[in-house]
């Protein structure tokens, strides 16, 4: 499956970047999907490049709750300074993504539209299957209500009562701001939104967005917003994605640099994937190095213990030699006549003390008495 051009615009000098969520969330409706996995990988790469601020621009009818929740939670948990922008339409899951940024970091174009409603799906089966599906959807409604609750300061119950009544709630930029979901900014986006969108059913809006999705031979749904100021970029947007090459991106980059915008990079999706794969490989190698260092430290500790044991064994051997020398010393004195100690075969002379001599004299004197 060919993927369309994936435009990543980052400004290294200002440590900022932009991500455009232009299309349907999830990989079910299009072969150029806006998935949670892709979004998280984008944030990881940008963070690795030293980017600190990311502006997420939204023009989406919504889509998959599963991918949408992944994007929402990635925004809420990210260490990056993430701002969300409703460039035209933030409907359904798109409005939840809009409300995922922190207070003061949610923005609205003056003519934008926001839409909130209950989750929906398609079910098949018996009455119990239908009931299980209904309960399943209510769980998602509660979870989704939490994002709007966090943004507005209202309770989950208040949000559910206001917006999760199985109707589509279309809000102008001013109404969206009044509910506390985001702040209207003095900018007008080039994102196209039907003039009568608030009078259209959500199904019709979804069908309209789906029909406008690019195919493999059309421009991307993620990020190719151009202005008259950048003629080369505008021309590039009309080129079939399948025919785009790195050489065609070079004059675009030169045009951007000529405008004094430093640190901006435009890359193909394949190049981005290569960068992300390299980053993942580096991360894996770094983890392996940590493991190897831990093993090396353990080996070093064991070697020290072995050396210590060897030293103790040497000391023990030396002490044993000394003990053996004392036991078998041929010069040790003999205390019995039967002692087989080598010598000249003569008894050693007795050693008499003064008292012994005196007693011998007394005995001798008594021996003289008849």
Structural description of this entry:
The protein has 370 residues and is α/β, with parallel strands linked by helices. Among the domains are: 9-117 and 168-267, 2-enoyl-CoA Hydratase, Chain A, domain 1 (Alpha-Beta Complex), CATH 3.90.226.10; 273-314. Helix content is 47%, strand content 13%. The protein has eleven helices and eight strands. Strands 1, 2, 3, 4, 5, 6, 7 and 8 form an eight-stranded mixed beta sheet that branches. Strand 4, helix 3 and strand 5 form a beta-alpha-beta unit. The longest helix is centred in the C-terminal third of the chain and has 59 residues, at 269-327. The radius of gyration is 44 Å and the shape is elongated. Mean pLDDT is 76; it is low at 1-7, 214-229 and 237-241.
How would you sum up this structure in a few lines?
The chain is α/β, with parallel strands linked by helices. 47% of the residues lie in helices and 13% in strands. Strands 1, 2, 3, 4, 5, 6, 7 and 8 form an eight-stranded mixed sheet that branches.
Question: How many H/I helices?
Answer: 11
Share in β-strands: 5-15%
The major pleated sheet works out as:
8 strands, mixed
At the fold tier of CATH, the topology name of the domain at 9-117 and 168-267 is 2-enoyl-CoA Hydratase, Chain A, domain 1
**Beta-strand segment tally:** 8
CATH-level-4 superfamily name of the domain at 9-117 and 168-267:
2-enoyl-CoA Hydratase, Chain A, domain 1
Helix content: 40-55%
Key descriptive features of the protein:
11 helices; 8 strands; serine protease; single chain; 13% strand; 8-stranded mixed β-sheet; 47% helix; 2-enoyl-CoA Hydratase, Chain A, domain 1; 370 residues; disordered N terminus; alpha/beta
């Amino acid at each position: 499956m060919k993927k369309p051009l994936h435009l990543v615009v980052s400004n290294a000098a200002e440590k900022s970047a932009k991500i455009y969520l232009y299309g349907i969330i999830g990989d079910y409706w299009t072969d150029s999907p806006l998935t949670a996995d892709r979004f998280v990988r984008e944030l990881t790469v940008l963070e690795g490049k030293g980017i600190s601020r990311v502006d997420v621009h939204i023009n989406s009818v919504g889509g998959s709750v599963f991918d949408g929740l992944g994007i929402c939670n990635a925004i809420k948990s990210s260490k990056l300074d993430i701002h969300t922008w409703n460039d035209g339409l933030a409907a359904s899951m798109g409005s939840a993504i809009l409300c995922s940024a922190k207070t003061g970091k949610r923005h609205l174009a003056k003519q934008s539209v926001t839409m909130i409603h209950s989750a929906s799906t398609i079910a098949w089966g018996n009455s119990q299957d239908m009931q299980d599906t209904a309960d399943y959807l209510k769980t998602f409604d509660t979870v989704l209500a939490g994002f709007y609750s966090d943004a507005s300061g209202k309770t989950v119950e208040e949000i559910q009562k206001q917006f999760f009544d199985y109707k589509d709630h279309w809000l102008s930029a001013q109404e969206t701001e009044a509910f506390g979901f985001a702040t209207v900014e003095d900018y007008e986006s080039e994102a196209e939104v039907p003039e009568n969108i608030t009078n259209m059913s959500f199904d019709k809006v979804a069908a309209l967005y789906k029909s406008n999705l690019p195919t493999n031979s059309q421009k991307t749904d993620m990020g190719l917003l151009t202005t008259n100021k950048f003629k080369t970029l505008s021309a590039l947007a009309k080129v079939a994605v399948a025919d785009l090459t790195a050489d065609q991106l070079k004059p675009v980059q030169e045009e951007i640099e000529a405008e004094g915008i430093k640190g901006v990079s435009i890359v193909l999706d394949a190049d981005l994937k290569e960068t992300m794969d390299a980053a993942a490989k580096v991360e894996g190698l770094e983890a392996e190095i940590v493991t190897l260092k831990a093993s090396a430290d353990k080996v070093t500790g064991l070697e020290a213990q072995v050396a210590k044991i060897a030293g103790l064994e040497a000391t023990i051997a030396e002490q044993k030699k000394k003990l053996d020398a004392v036991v078998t010393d041929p010069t040790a004195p003999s205390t019995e006549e039967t002692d087989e100690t080598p010598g000249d075969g003569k008894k050693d002379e007795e050693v008499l003390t003064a008292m012994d001599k005196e007693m011998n004299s007394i005995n001798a004197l008594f021996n003289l008495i008849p």
